[in-house]
Amino acid sequence: MKNISPKYLYLGLIFIISPVLTTAQSESNTVYTCINQISENITAPVRIALDPKNNIYVSDVKQNRIIKYNTSGQLIKQIPLNFPPASIAVNKNEDLFIGDKNSGEIYKISSTGEISLFSNKCVSALSICFDSDEQMYVADGKQNGIIILDKNGNITGTLGKEVLTYPVCLFYDKRTNRILAGEHGGTGTGFTPECKIYVFDLQGNIINSFGSYGNNDGQFYRIQGITSGKCNNIYVSDPFQGTVSVFDKEYNFITKFGKFGNNPGELNMPLDIAFSEDEIIFVSSLNNGRIELFKAPENLPSSKIFDSDAVICPGDSTNIKIKLTGTPPWNFTYAVNGYAREEITSEDSIFTLKISEPGIYEIIKLSDNTNTGSCFTGSAVIKTPEILPSVSISSNDTLTCSEDTALIRFDFSGNAPWYFPLIYNDSAQTNIFTLNNPTFLPVTKKGTYEINKISDAFCTSANISETLTLSTQEKPYADFLYKNNNTEITFINTSENADSFLWDFGNGNISTEETPSPEFYSPGIYEISLTAKNKCGEDTVEKIVNITNSENNNCDRTFIKISPNPSKGTFILECNNSTRTKIFIEIISSSGKTVFSKFFYGKKIKEKINIENLPQGIYILKIKSSEFAGSLKLIIKR
User: Fold this and answer.
1) Of 2.60.40.1120, 2.40.240.50, 3.40.50.1820, 2.60.40.3080, which CATH number belongs to 557-636?
2) CA-closest candidate to residue 118, choices 150, 86, 140
3) pLDDT tens, 99-145?
4) pTM of the model
5) How far is CA 272 from the centre of its chain?
């Protein structure tokens, strides 16, 4: 196909130009439908501006006037000027500002119709826009930059002088609070490679740039007009190609529309572009002397990230849900923290993206089978928590009786509520949800309890390893064996599950030793008992033992006396010691601890002993010398 490109365009002097033929590299997309034209009283339309009510202002450089139309394209009035208007803009107060092509001066026409000089600080006011604070930005091609003016028309700063050569169009993007500036691409018949859009923040920093010289997708022969429209897409007019290129809000090329020509719906030198609230696109066609009205496609493909914010633990993953509209298949690219990651193709209108990296996830590029444009909204903020959830498991009752209840304690870090599976003996699982820190859980089953993962308010799953083993203490079983070789008797303790013992030898002697060696003073039949104890109870066994022979002790039990017994802690100990040897007396508690000891001398012993400081209970009094040994049960009772 043939496109008609103009021979040259010099913005300092704008003329109606005879075109020449060039070969286009690609077809423009025709889904943007031309729905009407505005041509009444227009000769050479250059700039377009819309006021807050969507009234349309058109600058006509041949007639030196501004023509105002309503939203339906009906003529409202004409404003004659004594200079050719190079630029126009309307602020929030519906004041109209007009740049003089010859002098660079900017005039203000108030909403009441009063005309005044606003600023004479510019040399070439080719395009005007306002930011949200009503600061004015002026593309000054002769000063090679953007001039910033305050509400009184005084210069407060500049933008882009280090990179711009001939800026001709401006647009303030209120979504990002940035200024988009179109670098024209040349003057007269010359061409330069710097035919692109620069994106500045309000401090003058270059944030991005897009476009280049050429006639492929996303390229321009010249740039003349720029605006934003449906889905925050960016629209850029190329007067030499007679087309409007469409970029998404991340400045990726989507499509283009328009056709160079003179028939209705065709564009011959499209110098400016504007977008109304009802999504009508206005394009000024200089050489055709009219404004072409286009309608954006009703069903642009769109993507929306929804219900996907999450906090994940390191090593875990979550799903981001993306809703797609349009005609399948869809191709989209997502970014993390502004950096493109992966291009994905989907046939499904609801796509689930599984991710494991924290950051801000956004869709930055999208197209469907029609390739008509795109809308993408929403983002997913994926975070990792400052404090990861964890739990420690403990119990003061790691050894309990079989029928008793043990209390397990859980101590947490992280943010309530906590949720975790409690695994018993590698098989049974109980899911626990709690708001309390610490949390206590009574259990009756003994075995191994394990936690291998935990979730809290911000973390879906943290891997941990916590184990607690609870053991059962069985009741004791008492039993013993004995051997009698006539001269001595040996006892063998065969009890089970006991941690303490009490022997009663039937002769007044007792012992808490596990395997004692008692002394018997005379032969006879003795009833001997053994009591085995632990925290779960006690068990007693009694056996009749016949002592057939016994050595004659020098201190016969007939001559050992404790009185009173029981006592409150003070008693008299008497013993006849025929050998006059040294005697050692020791009192032992039921736990096996020595609580009193003393040596005595003499043939006949009679000693008062005071142990009232000891608690009541059963004690063993042991008497030992080099010639004999014996023990008696001592009872303190109050």
Assistant:
1) 2.60.40.3080
2) 150
3) 999 999 999 999 888 999 999 999 999 999 999 999 999 999 999 99
4) 0.57
5) 45
